[in-house]
Prior knowledge:
alpha/beta, 9 strands, developmental protein, AB_hydrolase_fold, Protein NDRG2, differentiation, neurogenesis
Amino acid sequence: xxxxxxxxxxxxxxxxxxxxxxxxxxxxxxxxxxxxxxxxxxxxxxxxxxxxxxxxxxxxxxxxxxxxxxxxxxxxxxxxxxxxxxxxxxxxxxxxxxxxxxxxxxxxxxxxxxxxxxxxxxxxxxxxxxxxxxxxxxxxxxxxxxxxxxxxxxxxxxxxxxxxxxxxxxxxxxxxxxxxxxxxxxxxxxxxxxxxxxxxxxxxxxxxxxxxxxxxxxxxxxxxxxxxxxxxxxxxxxxxxxxxxxxxxxxxxxxxxxxxxxxxxxxxxxxxxxxxxxxxxxxxxxxxxxxxxxxxxxxxxxxxxxxxxxxxxxxxxxxxxxxxxxxxxxxxxxxxxxxxx
Length: 341
């Protein structure tokens, strides 16, 4: 690690009654593929993993995850875990625009930056939360470093590489649409965009007027050039940890619980996602005493428990079956929870 930089800031956001401001420490670490910036909230808890997030294209950690982590019911969770919010290179606030000809890392290389972050922080295990491109990055990391990932929450993930038809459609769309409009089409469904709600207007303005739009385009290109993760149920390429798959109601591939566009449940349904996450954590053996309420409109197919094959500890698992092609596989049965918000 050639260069390390640390900046301490106080997060400015509305506080709940009796809540004190969180202190956020922002770090920058040099990796073999360039510098990566991440922000840490809280302090490490004994025998507990860190929650590590990775955002989607067109967003940074704040615009992607702030509504979720500011939600009232989420406070119980964040008090029990230290969390690390990773910004993809050039996506952090105030990031300079990369010079012309800069070779942006592939999604596989972005995943290979994560060990440098964990080594710097001296964290041994994580629970990852990723959206879209970020979900792909965390999945790739979990495949290559399974012993460091205790669980994954994957929102609107597409584990497949773009086919020729997708590539052609992308090129044709690029002739008539701006980069910001193409990215909005990735983040939200056409129905949402046509409705032009206050949320859509907000994110259209954020992306269209982003000072680092050239950097965002590079991240977008890396996402569109992703490799197939080659997940096969019962095959050799599987996720070894418990997985919670989440898809927004507006996502076009809801039935398969994966989506390349449409719906951002962490923005529009933070309450439902928070409660589903609590169930997921309880299934892993954490927060057993947390008070739970009914998860309205949950479409979780089923919840079952299974003993962990790890002899050092027992974890209950959540199980959901999906017969769609391309379904994410996560090892032995009982490891996957599927939720629609």
